[in-house]
Amino acid sequence: MANELLILFLGTILFLCVESKYIAYNTSQGVVPGKLNVHLVAHTHDDVGWLKTVDQYYVGSNNSIQGACVQNVLDSVVQALLADKNRKNGGMCMHDEASTHYIDMIDQTTLGHRFIKEEFGVTPRVGWQIDPFGHSAVQAYLLGAEVGFDSLFFGRIDYQDRAKRKREKSLEVIWQGSKSFGSSSQIFAGAFPENYEPPPGGFYFEVNDVSPVIQDNLDLFDYNVEDRVNDFVTAALSQANITRTNHIMWTMGTDFKYQYAHTWFRQLDKFIHYVNKDGRVNALYSTPSIYTDAKYATNETWPIKTDDYFPYADNANAYWTGYFTSRPAIKRYVRLMSGYYLAARQLEFFSGRMNSGPNTDSLADALAIAQHHDAVTGTEQQHVANDYSKRLAIGYKEAEQLVSSTLACLVESTLPAGCQNPVTMFQQCPLLNISYCPASEVDLSHGKNLVIIVYNSLAWRRNEVIRIPVIDDNVAVHDSNGTEIESQLLPQAEVFEGLRNFYVKAYLGHTPPNTPKYWLAFTVSVPPLGFSTYTVSTAKRTGSTKSSVNTYQSNEKARFEVGQGNLKLTFSTDEETHSNYVNIRSMMDKQVEQKYLYYSGYNGSHQKDPQNSGAYIFRPNGTYFINHERQITRLHKEKEHVEVEFIVGPIPIEDGTGKEVATKISTALSSKKTFYTDSNGRDFIKRIRDFRTDWDLEVNQPIAGNYYPINLGIYIKDNKTEFSVLVDRSVGGSSLEDGQIELMVHRRLLLDDSKGVAEALNETDCVADDCRGLTVQGKFYYRIDPLGEGAKWRRTFGQEIYSPLLLAFSEKDDKDDWMNSHVPTFSGMDSSYTLPDNIAMITLQELDDGAVLLRLAHLYEIGEDKDLSVKTSVELKKLFPEKKIKEVKEMSLSANQERTEMEKKRFAWKVKGSFGDEHVLSRGGPVDQKELAVELAPMEIRTFIIYFDDNDMPNLLSDA
Amino acid sequence: MANELLILFLGTILFLCVESKYIAYNTSQGVVPGKLNVHLVAHTHDDVGWLKTVDQYYVGSNNSIQGACVQNVLDSVVQALLADKNRKNGGMCMHDEASTHYIDMIDQTTLGHRFIKEEFGVTPRVGWQIDPFGHSAVQAYLLGAEVGFDSLFFGRIDYQDRAKRKREKSLEVIWQGSKSFGSSSQIFAGAFPENYEPPPGGFYFEVNDVSPVIQDNLDLFDYNVEDRVNDFVTAALSQANITRTNHIMWTMGTDFKYQYAHTWFRQLDKFIHYVNKDGRVNALYSTPSIYTDAKYATNETWPIKTDDYFPYADNANAYWTGYFTSRPAIKRYVRLMSGYYLAARQLEFFSGRMNSGPNTDSLADALAIAQHHDAVTGTEQQHVANDYSKRLAIGYKEAEQLVSSTLACLVESTLPAGCQNPVTMFQQCPLLNISYCPASEVDLSHGKNLVIIVYNSLAWRRNEVIRIPVIDDNVAVHDSNGTEIESQLLPQAEVFEGLRNFYVKAYLGHTPPNTPKYWLAFTVSVPPLGFSTYTVSTAKRTGSTKSSVNTYQSNEKARFEVGQGNLKLTFSTDEETHSNYVNIRSMMDKQVEQKYLYYSGYNGSHQKDPQNSGAYIFRPNGTYFINHERQITRLHKEKEHVEVEFIVGPIPIEDGTGKEVATKISTALSSKKTFYTDSNGRDFIKRIRDFRTDWDLEVNQPIAGNYYPINLGIYIKDNKTEFSVLVDRSVGGSSLEDGQIELMVHRRLLLDDSKGVAEALNETDCVADDCRGLTVQGKFYYRIDPLGEGAKWRRTFGQEIYSPLLLAFSEKDDKDDWMNSHVPTFSGMDSSYTLPDNIAMITLQELDDGAVLLRLAHLYEIGEDKDLSVKTSVELKKLFPEKKIKEVKEMSLSANQERTEMEKKRFAWKVKGSFGDEHVLSRGGPVDQKELAVELAPMEIRTFIIYFDDNDMPNLLSDA
Fold first, then answer.
1. Residue A77 and residue B5: Cβ atoms within 8 Å?
2. A633 DSSP β-pair partners
3. Which structural domain, as residue segments, surrounds residue B617?
4. Partner of A367 at 20 to 30 A CA spacing, among A12, A220, A426, B343?
5. Burial state string for A434-473 with b = 16 or more CB within 10 A and e = fewer than 16
6. Glycoside hydrolase family 38 central domain spans which residues (chains A, B) (predicted)?
7. Are A639 and A523 in contact (CB under 8 A)?
């Protein structure tokens, strides 16, 4: 067989090479104390989509865009590792840290960690966030310390910060990301000296790379062992100069490398062999874990780092704060799917998980992929963004089927005995955001009634207004008791109609058959983890109101007030951006101004610093106010916040300039340069304008450099008042003036910003040849509270935004008595029970083995709310009224090991200075297996696997 | 271990891929009769130096010039072949066919074929000359049929020829390259439809190649099996349309591919699997041998092809005829080393080959490498040309040491008993061509005598004038008998002095200490395979002449005649390029005009067809005569040819234009557009100006398109006369007008010709910062004979040019009687014996096992000379007077199998038309093991391994 290789050789030549002597390289070297140890960490960074889709990267198609094939990496790395047991390699992918929500991060990490545990029996010990564009506190403490990591490594920190850390040898720190957890949230965190590539000096060894290979065959020309050893030692000493201890790490790889792993390992083998023969420094095959152990073993004392590493700039005019908002529609889609996934898993548990047949797995996969740092970030190419959306849509489709059939089984009362072939057909309306809901837009005039199941995935009872489009203007709503309830018919705003028609055609390929004239709105009341049923009919309305839209001429002077509850807003037509905000309960009476503006995207083409504004980078070039953006401001009678629904786009580009649209809400609060933004929707972090805690900031970009990622909200305060804004998706925002909050809501740019994506962020939607710039529709919410009272709304309403009510529609005949023949209301929990106000259930998921994964999250930080920032208890038994709990195992956050095992292994790093830890009792106590009460301290998230009596104990985790 | 691979995976994503189902591809398909069979021939074309040196290609260094690493290819191909026994791959390198001499081609092929036999036990059956720029008759019949090949494949033939062959389905032919051997020289020869790359349609699968990979995983997006199968079938049917039989070959690879072989085989596996499932065509892993067998099995009748495939043009203005002359200095160096290697091996045999210690192996290797189609061709980058020269110099150095010590042993008469530490120290003068010979430039005034050993590697006695530089003007020469012989002191021409000083400084780093004023010339007489000894002393000269150089003013009118023998040339100063050529013996009396001219190199930069003249391409843009080139014309008394030594260069480029210098020798012969050029120094092939035998030539380049490679010589004739020119190296030449012959002797070009080398052919030599365009010094020889009498000179003198006398120098004291204390003359053959005039010994080489490799070559074609084109016998016993021959095995030309075995296997192809074979008895008969007389028919080369009584029979070949 091997003969065939040579059967056609005509020449004499190649055997000169074949004959060269065999050299056995000694690659077994470990750490050598007293020497400078160069930890060679072979790694490949395999983006889960970026310039190509994740599948294209895997199979190596579409190489004209980027030469990359992960299949090559896997195939060849396995071969190379088998060939020498001393070799090591990491293949890594990683979620984003700015535009991701902590619940999504936990889900994604859990999926990965449990896969690794099941397939390889391995529990990861290290976070490897080398590429995300800035680093969050939640990543460090929650997705770091709380998943049992001993260390966390990353490549991208602010260039000014990096320079200072190099000088002070503080690239490596102990990062304490949580105020509430204190020292128990500490993790060793290493920022790399430059990036995540090999050090300068020629150490790239991919097929066809140009670094000089080690030529150690004396029979050939150009023998260069000494030269290359010198190069190695020089690079090592240079890095040692900026590093504490005598351990340095070399990240030997970069994006999609190791396609033929042998090319790297051949050289690494030689370097280890010859460098150690030389003896000046010690080179070894290492991993981040080995490196971490070596660092720990030195007993060094480390500088402390708190808060986070946002925003990230790699250059004076290159603030990576544009991507906080880039692709706002995808960002919203991801968030919408996250909430749906949470709800669908609950219903999947109620009906019993099916491994084949509709389940939530493909939605789980799609969401996990969407968390990638070139997915939800908006920094991927357009065709890749389309791919992420497609995956989400496919995942949704399957989950939607599961949800519909589970709801059908629940209303038919076949559960928990089993759910097979329910009769009731439920429809859902994923395009409700663009007023398109065929299920509700039905003709009810001939004795048809609309049945609406309203599912609440929160573990609290919930009263909320829902809105559905209807074509009839004479409808009544009845609740589960058959009682007619108050409802309101709101005329469809004209601006929505064009949007609806265009996007339904774009997404579904046809124009909607009807044009519903009204939104039907009514308040629903739904039990925790449960549903209520409402019917809509043409029965005579009583006690319902029909609304109309007031239009006014711009020259008409008028004042009008909205708000039927405690909160009232008064607008005046001559200054339409201003309103008077009055809450008669809390006695808040403030002037609020809300405006839209755009930043002109910087065009660096002929400039000294050619940096453009683009998908990653926000580099504004002038601020311009706009007065024609469309929005709807809503107040709900029982709520005390303002809901603003905006429609932004298409952003005009006829002038050849990209634009980034923001809204600015101004108050008179004396916020003293200070504002607060959430970290991945969890902890709030104090931000000070034009200031960084870790270094003396040189301000180059006074706008972009003050932008931060927002996933939950942003607030400011003065000595009396808090002003909070909550968001429906990940956006960038800031407070650029005292009293003011701004959110960037949409971006359309015509130039690439030279950070790799090689495409302008110019999103369009097309119906045949009619391509229009993307229109983005979204909501934000604001509220003014007395100082100290805002957290309650931010936390509670934040959960409601993440977990919107899920609506399912069916039809019944007028004569059918649905409420008596079906289960009209349901709660998955004990009907007497609800979770405390400060606790949320963020995961309820049946695992493959029938056990249940449960996560409970305390929603408040220490000191955040005077009543709710307290240790609180949850009764597990009440959560599973129909089941008998056999055992509860507390797990690490990613559920791949028992919590007690994880705690036992935790490293206790030495920290510089007297950084006292005042919160000694920052955690809930152990769970008594009889009482089954779970205590949660502020910000605590506890993860359990719960085994019921009808389940076998699983193999995987029983031996942990 | 494999766990390390994944220990750092944080994500969820890659396992989507890892989980994909395992598909077992069926790759075992063989030929299927009745279907179109697509033979997939996986191959990598690994140039033995081109843009990088051979070692750089091997280890993969200098990748900034070209990403290429043969070590990757070998490592990964072996793995891939081991993984599936159905897979096959050829790694190929190949000598050039235009600028190579047949003796070098034989040596190179023998080295390779014997290596393959020894290492792998394999005898190649196929010639794979896919890249050389045109194809020679000698390659087809001598390095093809005569090495036992059944077929020969190549990529490059004239674009007009290719177009016609496609139309006529005659890309595949039976090539009969020898007039003398007739049908026994036939070989199946396939020109590829385009080149040696995969067919159009996206079938490149190197790492990062952009062809669509087969995506057959239904769990991923972009499944494309049907599309790719259709692409395959389309490409196959397209090729089938221009091919006879239902077998087509796909060359699945190209330059330096298969660096990670798995990337190709993964796709080829899938293609074979899915295409055969589809069933429209049959795809199989194949080799050129399997393909050849399949072709043969069809019993098809094939068109015949004679002569060769020169010149090659791939475009109307892209005639690859420049490289026939490119890098004339390297071409000469290679030829000089070839002759030296032939001589050194003889001496190595006489002294007994040493496996360690000085031997000819490294010169053999260097010469083999130098035959590469981007080496002696001159189409490599400058740094690579330097590398080839360095290798030759290193090989020479070792061979020189062997030659000196063997000669010392021979003169000390310690052989054949053994040659250890001889006392005599011999020096040689490799820079004699630039008049630099420290060994002869010694001060003889103080009783020192110069001893000169003159070794003749031809198997004929030889009388010839030798010339050495001396510093004394009062020297006498004595022969082996102590008799003073006639000698001549010729003043050193001034033009040589500057050249000598510059180049000695450039090559050796110092200026020569002496400036010898004279060439000492005298006639030596040397026995076959032997030497004579001459001494030079300051003893009083008798019967010697001292010459002077005549200079004349250009306005001075004069005639002068040179020539002391039969041949006389008369020049007149008023028309210096003309001479009158008179041979008083043969009665030839002709006017001869010799001129230099240059062609302006075409600059296509702003032209419609941007093709430049360059290293490969000859595209002249105007012809200009020069009258200042320097040359010396010599006539030797006992010879009847004119020797012209020219010095051309530095070619001026101050005008920004490259130039290509030719010399044109014109006579009044009525040659009727016809001329004859040798094929690799062996057969002469008839050429007709502006005409091709195989198609109706469209003439686009009337100069470049009529150029042919010349290694031995070129001649024209009319009905009375022959005019022959012989060359000292490979050059390009033509006869562009009747009666005229031209040779291109030097080229200096300022533009790259876009055929890949990416460098202008602008050779310079530097002494410190003084860089000058390369000066080329060389010789050609011409002679005019009566019709039918030229061959004798061409053949005999051609051997003398190839095998110049080898000079070794020593010193002795005036008082030492060297001739009596040393062996003054020697012949390796029986002293009574000499080879017949029509037979040359082209190889005499001791093999590793002590046996001897002997090649005897008949020098005449059938009908070439009325006396010498006859079957002739050689007595082997007389060649080895000191040894007892135990056995003589006749071998294939490349000595890797017994001739009888080879003949048994030979395919008998069916040929179209009644191409009768008139030369039935075109071969010598078998060798009687007693008589040991070897018969050689015209053009026959017979190869023997001869075992002597003191040798063991080798294992390798006894089982053949």
1. yes
2. A644
3. 559-798
4. A426
5. bbbbbbbbbebeeeebbbbbbbbbbbbebebbbbbbbbbe
6. 318-392
7. no
